Amino acid sequence: MTRLPITKTPKVYVGGAFIRSESARTFPLRDAAGNFVANIPQCSRKDLRNAVEAAAKAGPGWAKRTAYNRGQIIYRLGEMVEARRTELAAALRLGGATATAATKEVSATVDRLIYYAGWADKYEQVLGSVNPVAAPYFNFTVSEPMGIIGLLAPPEAPLLALISLLAPAITSGNTVVALASSAQPYPAIILGEMLATSDLPSGVVNLLTGLRAELIPTFATHAHFRALGGVANKAEQTALKLGAAESVKRVKLFAAEAPINWFSSEQQSVDALRAYLEFKTVWHPIGA
Amino acid sequence: MAAPVQIAVRRLFNDVGPVDYVGLEERVAKFGTRSLKKNAKRFGLKLAVSMIDLTTLEGKDTRRKVEALCQKARQPHDDLGTLAVAAVCVYPAMVPHARRALGPHSAVRIASVATAFPSGQTALKTRLAEVKWAVAEGADEIDMVINRGAFLAGEFSSVQDEIAAVRATCGAATLKVILEVSELETYDNIRAASFLAMRVLRPGDFIKTSTGKTTLNATLGNNQVMLEAIRDYYLETGVPIAMKPAGGIRTAKQALTFLVAVKETLGDAWLNNTRYRFGASALLNDLLRQLEKEKTGAYPAPYYFSEATESY
What we know:
The complex is a heterodimer. Helices cover 43% and strands 23% of the residues of chain A.
């Protein structure tokens, strides 16, 4: 007797739960040869709003964790990805990557997570400072997470790029709402399942799938986002910057037109951490 | 002693009829599926704002906090035009401060919980004195709690007599009778208690779900039981009783769903703040946030609104 095939219903990971879009819409995922694979949730503006609420709820708790603990959790996420390498590689191959390229990307993804896990309790020493002042005061500059960060992932290296964007943001205590590439959403769906088993508190990372054109205006104007990052083309950048100016948020975007080598060591640095930090300078009287 | 109690229970329950639990749950599950967009949504949000009893009932309430609450009640937001809530709801000790803050003839009314809120467990004499004092200090509305212990023991006439006594003490003030639904345990009990209260209330007095001090507060289900009791009582006697769900309604979406229930159960005559109120504190900010979003097209952050203390 032949078994009926059991196929997976792709769902997005928001607020620690796997959900369909509230709009009940989907768009078809096709493999590189054009065959239908699955229906991917087409998230709406309302889903984005709900994801921001989830991120806001998780934020204070995540930011309050010790840097050491955040590092442990991100390391654990690396372990979870490592343990499910084949599944992720298969998801990447669905989008047309060769076996070698897929394996290489998964390895680079794990390495990137471990890299930022290491930074978690060290960036403050590098980025913070004790400033010289000509008065009997200590003068410190310390960093604080910004809050909720909106990220737009590119279709190239869909897994590695997504992790390269979100890992530095969460390492320093921010929470993230990320939109996976519309063309290559499947690795983000699988990644959600690893986030769920990684000790990362619910809502710290929220992954949406859907159409960029539909969601970018809300990314731009939603005032609860404190910063926007990722990859966007010229027209999208204009829309994002206009919206961001209105609600005074930081924008750090890569141009989609220029090729980015996500494997390069330039894509992992303490500067990526600095991009989503606010700095606070405090005067404290000496001897008081 | 047991026999007369059982007879009283049976008589009341036969009289008011049972609640179809399954049918009711199914009915309320449908209310959330109505699609309210654009103008209808704006109308609903503004209506909900005008129906709020902006509430602070904490041991740590101070004069300043009540004054700030009154200010917010009068003008919830700078950008949204003339918008005010129905009333502020405070402890009796805070009534004089609220009256001073709002002035003698304010459109925003002052509601005060009295009768040993939230438990109601003191002597009737003390409870009536509390009501009298609150009214004398300027409360326009009194929120009383029923004697749940007596109700559950089947002593219905004593529950009803106490409500009547408080009503008489209220004078011109509107009375709201808190059934504390979570302690009544079944829908049948909620319906029976609603009728018990309504039979001694004046037109325009309220029945109210809960104190907000227990774990389970207003839900669509118990709201619906009470709305249907109000409808049946109105059809029977012609006396319109008003309704106030309280506690647990925090989001604009929830509030709109409650309004759908009102519209579809009691009709447009109940869609105003003399017939329907929300007892809430956090709800107002979310309504304002949604109204602001409707106006500008952009979702504002919660910390753009007063009293949202989270800063993330």
